Amino acid sequence: MPNRLINETSPYLLQHAHNPVDWYPYGEEAFAAARERNRPLLISIGYSACHWCHVMEHESFSKPEIAEVMNRLFVCVKVDREERPDVDLLYMNAVQLLHNSGGWPLNCFALPDGSPFWGGTYFRPAQWADLLIQISDLYDNSHEELKIQASRLMEGISGQNMVEAPANPSGIDRAYPDETYEQLSLRFDGINGGMTGAPKFPMPVVWQFVLDYYDLSGKTEALDYALKTLRAMAMGGIYDQIGGGFARYSTDAHWKVPHFEKMLYDNAQLISLYAKAFRISGHKELLEIIQQSISFTERELTSPEGAFYAALDADSEGEEGRFYVWTRDEIMNVLPEYGALLSEYWGIDQEGRWEHGRNILLRPLTDEVFATRQHLSAEELKQLVRMASALLLKERNKRVRPGLDDKILISWNSLMIKAYADAYRVTQHQPWLDAALKAARFSEKEMIREDGSLLRTWKNGNARIEGILNDYAYLAEAFITLYQVSFDEGWLHAAKRLTDNVLRTFGDANSPLFWFSADHPGAGPEVVRVIETTDGVEPSGNAVMSKVLLFLGHYFSENTYTDRAEKMIQRMQTRINAYPQAYACWASSAMLLATGIRTLVITGPEAFDFARTLFAKQTASTLLAASISPSDLPIFENRFKDGETLIYQCLGSVCQAPVSNPDQVDHHLL
User: Where would I find the H helices in 328-374?
Assistant: First the structure.
């Protein structure tokens, strides 16, 4: 018999809908049942592409004898962390305070009001069965001690919200980005690219900052480290060599063995990152990664509505990575004429060797070196790889496919909207802008309420769950990016409406920073509100909001926005400088304060054409505004002259005399 999860839309929750565990979705029904039965809550959190989540579901949650204990002693709650990152953040913070580590599946035990008192991650079945009895006994026989433990954990979680202002603020001057970069560079892996150690995550926010810093400083070392990382990832097993798109991370230090799930948020940010690197360097190999990753997104993760699905699973046929790996015989069967050559190209039975005679496709040598060794021209090798990849991809598509998480998350969609817009900016390939606009219009129509508030997740025509800070911040940034490539002012006004909603409902009276969830019932866990500032595999919503406020402050001449952004960044400046790897998006925001925002305002009949000629030179600290006809947008005030196209170049509030040709633009202002 199905349990209560049968009515949910999350693929992860539906994976558990036929467990013998009497799962509740997270919400008041579960809390009421715990109060009524005087039983602790067992809150189990995961996501659909999580390998070890599947293992624990199979080993423990599917077993009637274990489910009987869970149902008798606990009120069991199953949470999709991608739908409810606010819930996940609360209980992950608790487990990290307990053990100084965390992960998924996350299994946390809580009082009936939701206050956590103990938890962990994956447990083997025997461990899990013993633990259930121990926790239940503690709840029945040592209840007061558990309440004290829960109270201490809640104090610890609340304490993490306190980001104190620097005792002696020095201000964020031109030296600040240099100091931040130097601190960050201590962790660079000079051999393999990325940051030192294993596992290796792509961490796009880190390399976005490094490229922004290169734009500012011209320090070739910074560009070299970033390009080394981007090349190493693209040549490694973390990148799907025949299908495009990146896996979530590599388990080793060499980018070889991926954790095979493919997440929308990773691929979105990496497309934006490779676009920035292509704009700076002009290296065509980076453009190929952009093209292949967008092709993967279109083929695997794009919904009929033009929005983007959340993820592809790591597992198929009960094995992690089974869909993606190859034996030499399989390759020879598909490519009888060129199989030996391409097996060498992809490291088959050499660098790519993995498990059970199977191989992860990767590129041990650069294309230039391989072509030279094989006496091929670069173009001959490219055509050969393209042909072989298409044939292998066709063969691979006959296999049992990994599960698709087909929910649509507004935050991750916003990252991909921005990615398509960023890719368009460096190529002016119109279909990519069209795709970004289609997804943005979907977001407006389906996920923004009339009062301007956001719903977080959408599936089968049903939008639900209150938006969190990241949803608003990422969507506002995507709208601003869309304006800068389309010059449709509606996107700026839409970003401003989202921002005003954040200021109204996420603000903290005691800090310039914003809460993770909104200030109204049902918007987040009731037991405590959390402020999240760390940049991880996704950027902090607070960090992105600081940029959004800076940008909109300039477009709308709204000093309250820029003042709030400056206070946010100044509040974080000690942490940014001390731990730049964990605050890399903040570091990019701080650099905007250090250098000032540059604006290029273009008005007149040729404004859009002029603006597009400047796309390739636009850095992160440059805002473009263009209009062919008079506009009420404050940035255009007193800047139109009949029949003339003029370019106004400004740094902060100081502007040069307008020029009438893009070639006359001072490139120092770009």
Answer: 328-334, 339-345, 367-373
Nearest to 82 by CA among 473, 532, 584, 465: 465
Selection from 75, 112, 26 nearest residue 465 by Cα: 26
Environment class of 344 (CB within 10 Å of its CB; exposed 0-12, middle 13-18, buried 19+): middle
d(CA 305, CA 316): 27
C-alpha distance from residue 137 to each of 115, 149, 321, 604 (Å):
18, 15, 40, 76
Band of residue 522 on the pLDDT scale cut at 50, 70, 90? low
* pTM of this structure: 0.94
State the pLDDT at residue 668: 59
**Tokens 């008798």 sit on residue:** 72
Residues 11/406, Cβ–Cβ less than 8 Å: yes
Q: What is the pLDDT of residues 289-309, one digit of tens each?
A: 999 999 999 999 999 999 999
Compute how many other C-beta atoms are within 10 angstroms of the C-beta atom of residue 504. Answer: 12
Alpha-carbon distance of 19 to 10, in angstroms, equals: 15
CA atoms within 13 A on the CB side of 646: 17
For residue 434, give Cα distances in angstroms to 278, 306, 412, 423: 21, 10, 18, 12
Q: What are the Cα distances from residue 176, in Å, to 172, 322, 572?
A: 6, 47, 13
Residue in 569, 668, 575 with CA at minimum distance from that of residue 622: 668
Cα atoms in the Cβ-side hemisphere of radius 13 Å centred on 661: 2
